[in-house]
Design a protein that fits this description.
single chain; 248 residues; mainly alpha; 9 helices; rod-shaped
């Protein structure tokens, strides 16, 4: 809507300053340079936002790999420890999937719940270290995967909070308005009016800026990180839990 208003203002300025006065507009060539600079700004911001999305996806895959590694290593432990690790992983996956689902409501206590879960599991690890030497050695093998999971989760949460710097967003908005007025002005100042170019400018600019917003904020819009691998792991662990429950 704001771009449409900017183009309309450009048309009005050209109408009162050139067409009604009978003046003829002669392009100076700087118009193309300004539009090119705006296009480069859009491209830079879009690329930066897309890289942020790829970074978040990488952290999701790292979390998935750490979950898988931790679960496989736990299979070498006694039955009680295996059940405890699986319970921890199910709670972890439930918290993550509930916090990042598309239709979620804001859960401000998610970080506190996750920290409490890690603290509880870490206390259990410390208790197992004080047990028999064989059990302590087996539990110690879980620590690298546990640390990897904690690290990947923390990076993902911080990456979800990162946004395109505010000055760049302001520059992008102001530039889009300025170029919109320029497009409206140059098209109306000509002898014959052209409406296709302004309409095309509004559509492309609006879609590009919306894509940047979607990529920049994983909790808004249609472009979101893919959590399918964590969801599949959650279903797999629940199936394993059900098989243990029905086993004699």
């Amino acid at each position: 809507m704001s771009l449409l208003l900017a183009v309309f203002i450009g048309y009005v300025v050209a109408e009162y300053n050139y067409r009604r006065r009978g003046f003829q507009w002669k392009p100076s060539g700087i118009e193309s340079a300004l539009i090119t600079i705006f296009g480069l700004l859009l491209s830079f911001t879009l690329l930066s936002s897309n890289n942020s999305l790829k970074e978040r996806t990488t952290f999701i895959h790292q979390s998935s790999d750490a979950v898988t590694e931790l679960y496989r290593e736990s299979q070498l432990l006694p039955p009680a420890e295996r059940v405890a690790i699986r319970s921890f992983l199910l709670q972890f996956l439930s918290l993550e999937l509930r916090a990042h689902r598309p239709d979620r409501t804001q859960v401000p206590e998610h970080s506190r719940q996750l920290a409490a879960l890690y603290r509880q599991s870490w206390q259990r690890f410390r208790g197992s270290m004080a047990a028999t030497s064989t059990e302590a050695v087996a539990v110690r093998r879980l620590l690298p995967a546990f640390n990897s999971l904690s690290s990947a989760t923390s990076r993902l949460h911080y990456a979800n909070q990162e946004r395109t710097p505010y000055p760049i967003i302001v520059l992008l908005i102001i530039s889009s308005w300025a170029i919109g007025m320029l497009v409206g002005f140059t098209n109306n100042a000509q002898e014959s009016r052209h409406y296709f170019v302004p309409v095309l400018f509004i559509i492309i600019s609006s879609l590009t800026i919306q894509a940047i917003r979607d990529l920049d904020n994983p909790s808004l819009g249609f472009i979101r990180p893919n959590y399918t691998n964590l969801s599949d792991l959650h279903q797999l662990l629940r199936q394993e839990q059900g098989m243990d429950t029905v086993s004699p």
